[in-house]
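> forwarded from #structure-qc
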């Protein structure tokens, strides 16, 4: 049988409330050359009954139900990728929703740009009921244009200070790149995707499709929300920042810009865990006013780009 061009990996854990809408939005894509791999991490809600409704769909290549919960979303990512037959991977998170043209809009420029390894679109934030939210990571809007970045420019402009690729559901990437990246992203439960996407982007050009084709759901049961209350996100972000400083040989000025940004954000969202984290990562969160000023100047002058 002809292999599909795209493998859609849907990792699920207790997202029964959203799962049918997610799967249906994949099946409704205008681009239809794909297989679906559904992975359930031992859900305790009604997810399995919903998944079973799709077992005979011709697009569904695998349904894997774990006997034990892995406790790590990246283990599920790896499992899905290992089963994938497609040239490209789309990790479609089980609580998100896609516009019908998402796959077509990302695959078309990827195939037209031989050096490109990843393409991503913009996201509309939605609440637990699927209603659009004011919250956005694109305060200047989405222009509709398609931008191609070389690897180094994209990483230094878009990934060092923050994670521009902030949701797996908005991304399609070449499967062949997966075997080339380090596996230490799995050590960071809450921010490991930031490191994962940076590693992927190191291997070729990056395409940004400036359209809101993905709906990124925000709700109380998200791992990212829990990470803000237990301090896990701050520990992960600090560890990844240290990796970036070494990996990309950042100079003293660039390191101070990173420290200024991290300190500014950390000071705004301090919690019970703050003292312990500051003691553990003074080089990341213990910046001075000068570091913060350098970061603000650096945004305008591009200190992190060179």
């Amino acid at each position: 049988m002809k292999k599909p061009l795209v493998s859609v990996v849907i990792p699920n854990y207790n997202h029964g409330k959203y799962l049918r809408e997610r799967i249906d939005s994949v099946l409704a894509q205008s681009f239809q050359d794909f297989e679906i791999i559904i992975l359930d991490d031992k859900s305790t809600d009604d997810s399995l009954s919903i998944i079973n409704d799709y077992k005979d769909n011709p697009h569904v290549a695998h349904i894997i139900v774990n006997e034990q919960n892995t406790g790590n979303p990246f283990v599920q990512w790896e499992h899905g990728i290992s089963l994938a037959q497609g040239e490209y991977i789309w990790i479609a998170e089980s609580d998100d929703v896609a516009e019908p043209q998402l796959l077509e809009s990302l695959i078309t420029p990827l195939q037209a740009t031989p050096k490109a390894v990843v393409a991503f679109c913009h996201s509309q934030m939605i609440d637990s009921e699927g209603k659009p939210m004011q919250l956005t990571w694109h305060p200047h809007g989405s222009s509709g244009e398609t931008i191609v970045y070389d690897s180094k420019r994209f990483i230094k402009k878009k990934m060092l200070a923050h994670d521009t690729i902030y949701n797996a559901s908005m991304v399609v990437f070449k499967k062949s790149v997966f075997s080339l990246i380090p596996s230490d992203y799995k050590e960071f439960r809450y921010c490991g995707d930031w490191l994962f996407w940076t590693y992927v982007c190191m291997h070729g050009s990056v395409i940004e499709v400036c359209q809101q084709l993905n709906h990124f759901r925000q709700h109380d049961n998200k791992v990212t929300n829990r990470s803000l209350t237990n301090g896990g996100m701050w520990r992960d972000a600090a560890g990844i920042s240290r990796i970036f400083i070494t990996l990309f040989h950042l100079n003293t000025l660039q390191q101070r810009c990173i420290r200024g940004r991290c300190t500014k954000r950390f000071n705004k969202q301090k919690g019970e865990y703050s003292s312990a984290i500051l003691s553990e990562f003074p080089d990341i969160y213990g910046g001075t006013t000068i570091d913060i000023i350098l970061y603000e100047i650096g945004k305008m002058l591009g200190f992190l780009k060179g």
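QC bot note: The mean pLDDT is 94. Strands lie at 6-12, 34-40, 60-65, 88-91, 97-98, 116-126, 146-149, 171-174, 205-217.
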